[in-house]
Amino acid sequence: MSDQEERIPVGKIIGTHGIKGVLRVFSYSGNIESLQCASTVSLTGGDNRVTEYGVSGVSSHGTVFLLSLAGFSDINQVLSLVGAEICLKRSQFPPTEEDEYYWRDLMGLSVFTDQGVQLGTLVDIFETGSNDIYVVRNEEREYLIPAIADVISHVDVVGKRMVITPLDGLLDL
């Protein structure tokens, strides 16, 4: 892994858990798989200094994750890490399945209808429980596009382009 490789924020240390140096982590995605696959994490503190640590364990605990770092076994050793942002290098993320994408890869895509009309840029994504919603914005308006197979026709991450087939009335909302 290159030191210049992009670091992607995945969570924030919000406190400690017990007295054995375990950290409580708020996950930005709610997905534990990325952290479980990582052998190291990069922590960025308030001074923007990045420090890499080995991971010795990750588990789920209610709405947060518990993170144990290699070489830390006492609460006093980790108190200074509370508030730090946790980042992973892009290469540490598990590969996606076909027609699966990381949100980060979709942000900024130009979105077009299957008729070639440019709707705008994908600027935000939010979860609804049943499917994600893509927020597409141009200078004049915003569209809420459901991330379902009937609507999303083609995604080209490398070409920074998404093509949708709008359901009747979708673009009138």
Major β-sheet, in short?
6 strands, antiparallel, barrel
CATH topology of the largest domain: Elongation Factor Tu (Ef-tu), domain 3
- The H-and-E topology, N to C, reads as EEHEEEHEHEEEEEE
Flag low-confidence runs.
none
Sequence of strands across the biggest β-sheet = 1-2-5-4-3-6
Tell me what you see in this structure:
The chain has a 6-stranded antiparallel beta barrel with strand order 1-2-5-4-3-6. With 173 residues, the chain is mostly beta strands. Strand 9 and strand 10 form a beta hairpin. The mean pLDDT is 92. It folds into 2 domains: 86 residues, Beta Barrel (Elongation Factor Tu (Ef-tu), domain 3), CATH 2.40.30; 70 residues, PRC-barrel domain (SH3 type barrels, Roll). The chain contains 3 helices and 12 strands. 8% of the residues lie in helices and 46% in strands.
Question: Which structural traits does this protein have?
Answer:
Elongation Factor Tu (Ef-tu), domain 3, 173 residues, elongated
Question: Would you summarize the structure shown here?
Answer:
8% of the residues lie in helices and 46% in strands. The protein has 173 residues and is mostly beta strands.
In terms of topology, how is this protein built?
Layout lengths: L6 E11 L4 E6 L5 H5 L2 E5 L5 E12 L2 E6 L5 H4 L6 E5 L13 H4 L3 E4 L4 E10 L4 E6 L4 E5 L5 E5 L4 E4 L9
